[in-house]
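ok so for the tutorial part 2 we go from a plain amino acid sequence to predicted structure tokens. step 1 is just haveing the sequence, like this:
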Amino acid sequence: MGKFVLKRLLALIPTILIIVFVVYFILDLTPSDPGHLILGQMASEEAVAAKNAELGYDKPFTVRYAKYIWDLCHGSLGNSWLSGKGVFETVMARFPVTVTLAAGATLIGVVIGVALGVDDAQRAGIITETDISSGLREFLGQTTRERLNTFVHDVIENSMDKPSIQMSPAVEQALMDLRQEMFQKVYLNPIAKKEESKAIKMLTELYQYYIDHPEAMSREYLALIEKRGVPKSRAVCDWLSGMTDQYSMKKFKEIFIPRAWEVY
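step 2 — the prediction. this is what the tokens look like for a chain of 264 residues:
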């Protein structure tokens, strides 16, 4: 497994280099240049030429690209044309804000995911409103709409004039309790477990089919086997893991369910 992961990581290197080259090449094709961007369109041609020479933009594309890759491999992202500060330092200075926003987005995602997940489970007939413990319903709300309203208002009230997006400890604990309760009552529900065995059977049949017919997979996954030496079992697992529920059921139907005779 470790050898396979190492191969996949090494295979990413040429892909990354190609992407970097394409992006660098496209940016180089833009009609403007650093000299005009920094000094403005009203600057003299002599001043612009001097600035471009200072930044190395008077050299051929291949020389500039080679220097960029060299600096990149040594951890240097260069300096900002506008501020003159190091790009890496500038990015890291804003990194805490990025982390805060990411954490807030995760919190909001959990709130929406749990609330709507409960609603989906109810519409699917797996649970009813009364399956949610009375204490949580009284505290958070009796319906999905009321619970969402509680969560959203709590996030807003506890995030105003604060450096991060957060919930009150009581509501956050209730959210986690509801999440855990739904895991027990939805994913471990006998109705859901009954469908689980069907899904396992379907995936097992699809797995065996693609093991026997790897040519039925996309060219990308077939190339993993034929050109990169990836074990067929691993390539098939990757192929199946990329399928959505609906697509996997569609492929199962196409492969294993007989089509009715067409009458002309």
